[in-house]
Amino acid sequence: MIAGIMPQAEFVHWWFATGFLMLGLVLFAEALVGPEVWGMRPWRTYIWPGLCFVMGILMWPVMTFFTNSAIHMVAHGSWAEVLMLCGAAELGVARGKLHSQYWRLTSSLALIVSGTAFLVHEQNHWLFARAAFLHHTLGWTALVFAAFPLMLALRPRSMFAASGFATFFIVLAVLLYCDRDVAPIFGHLSQFAGPPHR
Amino acid sequence: MRRALLLVALAALALPASAFAHASLKKETPAYGQELAVSPRQIVLQFDQTVQALPKSIQVLTPDGKNLAGSPRAVTSQRELVASLPRLPTGPYTIRWQAISNDGHIVSGVYTFGVRVKAPPVTSAVGAQGPTHTEDIVRWLYFVALALVVGGLGFRLLIVRGPLPPRAERRFFWVTGIGAVSLLQVGILTFLLRGEDMLQLPFGLFWYGDLSPLANGTRFGQTFIAMTLGFVLVTAFLYLSWLLDIVWPLRVAFALGLFFASGLSLSGHSAADAGHSWVSELADWVHLTAAMLWVGGLVMLLAVIWPAAPELRRTAFLRFSRLATVLVACLLAAGTYLSVLRFPNVHDLWTTGYGHVLLIKLSLVALALLWGAAHHFVAAPRLAAGDSGTFVGKLSRSMLGESAVAMAVLLAAAFLVNTNPPPQPTPRAPVAAHAARR
Fold first, then answer.
1. Number of domains in chain B
2. Which of B19, B188, B216 faces A198 most closely, judged by CB atoms?
C-alpha cells in the first residue's frame, strides 16, 4: 500500500532542492540588508530556522520509507537530525531562549556531519560516474562551507560570512536538482547523455 | 562569486546522465511473501537500473540451506537477473540475491516465498540469526529512553501540573529531550541490528543491503516506521513547548507518546504469538505504559524535583506515591494476565529459558514493589507530617536505589521481549479428542 503512494525519489530530491533554494535566498536577503534591517520585522528572523527545522522533520519519512540500502537510511537519518538541530538552535537564539552566540556553531556541525555522511557513503573515486562526482562534490562543498557558519559564530555581523553561508544552500540546491536522472520522469532526452540506464 | 556559482551549476548539468543512487530491486517474481500453488520455473529480479550478475547472484535456499537455483544471468537491457529452477517441492524458500550496481557497489537482499505453504517472515529466512545480546542491551536502552519521554511527560502533566521553577523546567526539558533524541537513535540502531541478523552480510556489504523487506514486510519494520515518525512529532512538540513556553504541546506530545508506544505491543509477543487477541495487545500496552510512567516518574523526582525544586518535593512525592499505587495495580493485573496467556503449563516457568528470565524479572519486580511500599507506607506519611532535614537526603538515596532496581526490571523485560515464549499446545482434532476422552 505504501509503495503505491510513495513519490518517486527524483521528486523528493527536487522538493528538498527547492527547500534549500528558499533557505539560501532568505539567508542571502538577510546578508544583503544586514541583521538590523532584517530584524525590523521580528517574524523574519524565524523564517530560515523554522524552514530548516520543518525540512528536518520532513526528512524523516525519507529515511523510513526509502530503505533499499542501509547506508541511505543512515545518511538520510543523519541529515534529518542535523537539519532539526540546526533549525532548533537558531530558533532558540532568535527567540531569546538561547543566549550564547556559540549555539550558531550547530550550523557548522550540521554541515560537517552532512558532508561526512556524503563522503562516507560514496566508496568510488570522483570520476567513476556522475553519482560519485556529485557525492564527492556535495560532501566537500559542505565541509568547506562549514567554515562560514563558524566565522558567523565568531563575527555575527560579517557580511562575507553570511553570504558564504547563504551561498552554500544555493550550491546545495543546484547540486540536488542535478543529482537525479531526468529519464525516469521526462524520458531519455538525448543520446549525448550516453546509453539509457533507467 | 556569481560566476563561480554558474560554473559549478553548468559543470554539474553537463556531466553524463548516469544514475545517482545504487540499483534498487523494483519487482521480484515470485514476490516477497507469496504463497504459490505451483512451483515457479524461474526467479526474475527486476532492478531500476542496469546491473551485472555475480556467480551467486541468486540463491534459492531450502530450509536446510541447499541452493536450488541455476546459474544467474542478466537480461532485458541488463536490468533483470534471471535464474532457472528445478521443480520445487512443497515448502518455504529463501532467496538471497546480490548484484553489481551501475555505480560499482554490490547491492544485496533477502526475501522469502512458499510453495503450497505460507512464506515465513524474512526475519526467519534461511541463514538469518535470532536477536543477540547486543540487541537485548539496545532494546533495554530503548525502554529507558521511552520511560524518560513518556514517563517524564506524564510526570509533568499529571504530578506537577502548575508552573515549575525555571531551573527545574530546564532540567525537565533536558531529561525528556535526551530521552526523545535517544529514542530515535536507538530505534535506528535496533532496526539496523535486526537487518544485520536478516542479511548476514560482511560489514562492508551490509551498508548496501536492501532492508525494505524488513521495513515493509514485517510487523517489526512497520512498527519501526510508525514509531520513528511518531516520536519525531513528539520531539517536535516537546521542543515547541520549550521554545514558546506553552503547555499544550506537552499534552499533544504525551498523547502521541502513549499512542505510538502501542507499536511495541502491536509487534511483540502479545500480537504475534499463538493465543493473541486485541485483549492481549491492550494488556501489553497497559503493562508497558504503567511501567514507563512509574520508571519515568521516579527519574523525574530524582533528576528534576529533588535537586531543582525543593519547595515541590513534598507535594510531588505524595502525588507520585498515590499514582504509583494505581500504576502498580495495572502493572500486576496486566502482567499476570499475560503470564497466564504465555505459559500453558506452570512448570514452563522453571523448565524453559523464557520462564527463567520471567522469574528473574518477577524477583526484581518484587524487590522494587517492596521498596515502593516502604516509600508509600513509611516515607510518605513522614514527609506529609513535615519531616525534613537528613530524612530528605536519605529518601533521595533510597529513590536512587529504587530507580536502579526499576532499570534492572527494564533490562529483564528487554531480554524477555527477545526470547521466545514456550510453545502453545497444538489443539487436538475433535475426533482424536473424543477418542482420548473415551
1. 2
2. B19
**A53 to chain B: closest CA residue:** B236
B289: in domain: yes
Residue A19 lies in a domain: yes
Residue B129, Cβ neighbours under 10 Å: how many?
10
CB contact under 8 A, A2 and B216: yes
Q: Does B197 touch chain A (CB under 8 A)?
A: no
Question: Which residue has 504475534 as its cell numbers?
Answer: B272
For A22-53, write each residue's pLDDT tens digit. 999 999 999 999 988 999 999 999 999 999 99
- A129: domain CATH number is 1.25.40
Distance CA A45, CA A35 (A): 9
Angle at alpha carbon of residue B99, lines to B98 and B103, rounded to 5°: 135
Average pLDDT across each block of 10 residues of chain B; the chain has 438 residues. List them in order.
Answer: 51 40 81 90 87 86 90 81 91 91 80 91 84 90 96 95 91 96 95 90 84 87 93 97 95 96 83 76 93 94 92 91 92 90 83 89 92 87 76 83 92 88 65 44
Chain A within 8 Å of B5 (Cβ-Cβ)?
yes
CB-nearest to A71 from B49, B208, B242 is: B208
Contact list in B for residue A172 (CB cut-off 8 A) is: none
In a domain, A33, yes or no: yes
Supply the CATH number for residue B65's domain: 2.60.40.1220
Q: Is residue A189 a part of any domain in this protein?
A: no
Task: Tell me whether residue B266 is in a domain.
Answer: yes
Q: Which residues of B touch A137 (CB under 8 A)?
A: 8, 12
Give the residue from chain A lying closest to B234, CA to CA.
A57
Domain boundaries, position A64: 7-180
ipTM here: 0.89
Contacts of A67 (CB under 8 A, 6+ apart): A73, B210, B211, B212, B214, B215, B216, B221
